[in-house]
Amino acid sequence: MRIAGKGLVDRNTPVGFRFDGKDYTGFQGDTLASALLASGVRVFGRSFKYHRPRGVMTAGSEEPCALVTIGRGAAQVPNVRATVQEIHAALDARGQNAWPSVNVDLMAMNDLFSPFFSAGFYYKTFMWPRKFWESLYEPAIRRAAGLGALSRKHNEDHYEKAYAFCDLLVVGSGPAGLMAALAAGRAGADVILAEEDHVMGGRLLAEMQEVAGQPGADWAAGVLAELATMPNVRLMTRTSITGAYDGGTFGALERVGLHLARPPMDLPQECFWRIVAKRAILATGAHERPIAFPNNDRPGVMMAGAVRAYLNRFGVAPGQTVAVFGNNDDAHRTVRDLKAAGVKVSALIDVREEATAPDGATLHAGAQVVDTVGRKGLREVVIADRSGQITRIPCDCLAISGGWNPALHLACHMNGRPVWREEIAAFVPQPGMVPGLAVAGAANGTFSTQACLAEGLEAAKAALSELGRKAKAVDLPQAEDGAYRLRAFWEVRGGKHRAWLDFSNDVTTKDVRLAAQENYRSVEHMKRYTTQGMAPDQGKNSNVAALAVLADATGRGIPETGITTFRPPYVPISVAALGAGGQGAGFAPQRFTTSHQASVERGAPMVEAGLWYRPSYFPRPGDQSWLDACNREVGFVRDRVGVCDVSTLGKIDIQGADAGRFLDLVYTNTFSTLKPGRVRYGLMLREDGMVMDDGTTACLAEGHYLMTTTTAAAGQVMRHLDFVAQAHCPAWDVHMISATEQWAQFAVAGPLARELLNTLLEEPVDGDTVPFLGVAPVRVMGVAGRLFRISFSGELGYEIAVPARYGAALYRDLVARAENLGGGAYGMEALNVLRIEKGFITHAEIHGRVTAFDIGLQGMVSAKKDCIGKGASTRPGLSGPEREQMVGLKPVPGSKSIGAGAHLFDEGAEPVRVNDQGYVTSVCWSPTLNSHLGLGFLINGRARIGTRVRLVDHLRKTDVICEVVHPVFFDPEGGRARG
Amino acid sequence: MRITCPLCGARDRREFTYYGASVYADRPAEGAAPEVWDDYLHLRDNPAGEITDLWYHELGCSAWIEVTRNTVTHAISATRLLADRATPTKKGARS
Ligand SMILES: [Zn+2]
After folding, report:
1. pLDDT of the residue at B95
2. A297 shares its domain with A167
3. What domain count does chain A have?
4. Is position A382 within any domain?
5. What's residue A778's pLDDT?
6. Of A321, A507, A570, A593, whose Cβ has the fewest other Cβ atoms within 10 Å?
7. Which domain of life is it from (chain B) (predicted)?
8. CB-based contact B64 A726, cutoff 8 Å
9. Considering the domain boundaries, does residue B41 fall inside one?
10. Domain of residue A334, CATH code
């Protein structure tokens, strides 16, 4: 029911929306909760376990009951708090956890079985028989219990993430936050003022009180108008600060497009911010806490502060006849406001015997509410006075207040522990819990408006001084300065009905007492046993009361009982916002070679190689499968000429007078003796003696080298070289930088490779100008490039490198020339076959657990010098016959194909783990040798060459006898590559 | 979390790669006994308090940095370039 002339919503701008399939109208400025309350809606959803009808409890982001689902299809968002969601013309909201609707919920029969759903019920009731748990009990419970549901569709909505930096972050825009922002803003500091509501002002919008002689909301508007003119102040509404992290970093969730009927295409739904602040002031206010009394969860039972917010800010009376139940003076303020607005107040029930009645109210001092009536909406409350005398009081809304808990969550996110303050019966933060963060106002346990204003101002002055800024004069306005008196009161005892603590997760006082009785006496155990505080509101409404009940049940005080750990996020964050930009193609960066387009145009399937994309093979019409293409491409290289983009290999340019000496330290073999114009294969170890990487390094000139790494290890090797240089030889003259993306490099391999190259090089080469393992500068069609005579295929092979901007053109040209010679492009499949035939290793073999000895390259570890990994590689157990050593595997003729990952066994042995003799790392079909080939590691393998082993793959059902051979299957003398 | 690179200034920790305790920079001498290598490679203190770790400014200037940090409070008390420390003593050399 709207009250004429009350509230801050725009009565001239009606807004239509839908809830549970019906059309409603509210006003601009309404939340879904305020608009529905104004329309007389009482049931917003059903509770988690018992499917009890639930209404609205609060007017803020801590709402435990009024959770709704908005949107349809893939855009469906569950568990949206109706107290936060603004209404708009396209809003289509639905109540949750009810079927078919919140008003007629057939699953409400759970409520009748409530004795079975007590604390820990799923640990006890359904324990036996165990196999029924997964198949029967759990799915049934999951269907019946729960909150909103996900759409299970891919979310196509747009989310973003962003970074911001400031001198001072002010969290919350109530009296304390506004004063802090004003003082810091006037002093010229970079200020971010973040407010989770869609209007700034905090409690000033919800209370009838004056600040500086004007209504509080007007004073707030004036301050905001001034802040809005300051270029150094950023005002962020709809922005919840979700977590406090190391180094002054704060997480923040901004609701950007969720309140708009037709958000512009480029506007995200939400944006997740990381805000880095030199100083922060927490002015998040406080949460009013309920009192546990029998049947306190009926629609119409609402926090007293929320009743005032709906009345004063939204102009909505949440009931026709309101009763108020509390333990503090603040509750009395509710009576005053309601009466001033002309709403009937049937009773003020104050647990304090000494309470005095405000003007004209019927006070029941020392009385308690012992029951409520009205299944789908409160009709009356039953109260008992000091003598036990029962009175029934008619009301359709009960405003309750058990006092206020400071919203200190962010101050506790770095493991700081709050302290108990007896006179307000609440936990308050201690100074310094988060470095650089000060707490002001109600979040600090300071409740009068005057004191909040003063604390905000003082906190800003202190922050400005720490920031080295001079504060400008700011007058402290006059405001309400009443005392906040209360008597701690948590639960009404002795009723036979359930009394709720956690409305969101359906946890009652009985559950907490049962947990204590079953010896879950620690607050952390009780929490997990009862699920208290584990719902979307994270116990904001209930944790302190629950631990008060636990303290009572275990005969301890509240401070000794302690409080559960506060963890981010402060409010629920959609995973889509946290992972913004990381969906689909955005999941990882994509790196494309200069030949990418040409490969795609040829129909090559592109496969991932780390972040790179490389062509798998180049299909042609008539191919039966990829294998036809692969065999053809292997043939190009063995018989004619093939072209392959090898730009993805890491290229590290290393220069300096000590560069050769440096290479000697990082490679097992010697490079300082390498002459300009020459290339050498190198092996690199980790410091623990395992092989890190291999590749060739060319000496381009005196003191100038170009190292090549594998595609997979390029980043790791760069990191390693930087480490070795900076840790072990910082004084040496050696400098290095990655040049991987600066050069496009193509392998031209096969008997006709030289013939092809000489058609486009300005100066033809022969076996003498660029000999095997040589490098020379060349000019190709007017472009300066480099020509390396290296081979990963075992054929006469070159790699030609040009600056990356010429890569695309050169690749197309090379492939065309190769095709003219009866060859063509080859992809990763063929490249893999070519290297397996030659026994060349990749990271399938050097997978991090093999030594130089294991791959048969122990001879490359120079005895004449130290190198990284040499010392550790001499440790016992890293060489010798007990090691698995690399061998070639050739299935006996007529065998089926073999697969990598298969294990090796003695011919007669049972293929079980204890008999394991090794494993297979790489396999291929070799069209050159007309056989399947494998590379693998076999215990004492080199001594077993010429024997036979059994290759078994239990997954692929392979069981093949293989001959153990030398890993170089093809051209073991290497005459073809040397040309 | 923010780390102050001595060359680049305070940066988000996502720019850095973590690499464990800084004792990894104190490489044993050539010929050190296997136990020395084992200690160097595998054994680390796990203090509740100050620890000095290696971080690599991989998405920045490529500097390796020694970061002194408190494992209890997460507070970073000092950062310096690994290259700026004095030449380390070699442990376990067999003379
Ligand atoms: Zn840096």
Report:
1. 38
2. no
3. 5
4. yes
5. 97
6. A321
7. Bacteria
8. yes
9. yes
10. 3.50.50.60
Q: What is the pLDDT of residues A740-788, one digit of tens each?
A: 999 999 999 999 999 999 999 999 999 999 999 999 999 999 999 999 9
The answer on A904 and A819 residing in a single domain is no
A344-350 and A321-326 beta bridge pairing: parallel
Average pLDDT over residues B64-71: 96
A204 assigned to some structural domain: yes
Q: CB count, 10 Å around CB of B13? A: 16
**Amino acid identity at A393:** I
Q: Where are the alpha helices (DSSP H) in A676-767?
A: 714-723, 753-758
Nearest to A64 by CA among A297, A373, A399: A297
In whole angstroms, give the CA distance from residue A126 to residue A787.
Answer: 73
Please name the member of B27, B58, B74 whose beta carbon is closest to the beta carbon of A246.
B74
For residue A597, the distance in angstroms to the closest alpha carbon of chain B comes to: 28
What are the tens digits of pLDDT across the range A102-149?
Answer: 666 666 666 766 666 666 665 555 545 556 656 666 666 655 556 778
Which chain B residues are within 8 Å of A247, Cβ to Cβ? 1-3, 10, 13, 76
**In terms of Cα–Cα distance, which of A241, A236, A174 is closest to A203?**
A174
* Residues present in chain A in total: 979
Write the single-letter amino acid at A784: A
Residue B35 lies in a domain: yes
Q: What is the pTM of this model?
A: 0.90
A842 and A957 assigned to the same domain: yes
Residue A19: domain span: 10-107
Could you tell me the two tokens for A520?
Answer: 């879950």
- The predicted pLDDT at position A74 comes to 86
Considering the domain boundaries, does residue B13 fall inside one? Answer: yes
How many CA atoms does the CB half-sphere of A58 hold within 13 Å? Answer: 22
In-domain check, residue A350: yes
Residue B65 domain flag: yes
Total structural domains in chain B?
Answer: 1
The length of chain B is 95
The per-residue b/e assignment along A250-285, b for 16 or more CB within 10 angstroms, e otherwise, is bbbbbbbbbbeeebeeeebbbbbbbbbbbbbbbbbb
- Mark which residues 663-722 of A lie under 8 Å from B by CB: 687-688, 715, 718-719, 722
- The parent domain of residue B54 ranges over 2-84
Same domain? A816 vs A698 = yes
The CATH code of the domain that includes B43 is 3.30.2270.10
In chain A, residues with a C-beta closer than 8 Å to the C-beta of B73 are: 414, 435
Interface predicted TM-score of the whole assembly (ipTM), two decimals: 0.95
The answer as to whether A5 is a domain residue is no
d(CA A526, CA A551): 11
In sign, the C-alpha dihedral spanning A154, A155, A156, A162 is: negative
End position of a domain, from candidates A466, A491, A516: A466
- Read off the pLDDT of residues A804-841 as tens digits, 9 standing for 90 and up: 999 999 999 999 999 999 999 999 999 999 999 999 99
Flag if B64 and A687 touch (Cβ within 8 Å): no
A810 and A884, same domain (yes or no): no
What does the alpha-carbon distance between residue A67 and residue A102 come to, in Å, rounded to a whole number? Answer: 12
- Looking at the structure, tell me whether residues A850 and A720 fall in a common domain: no
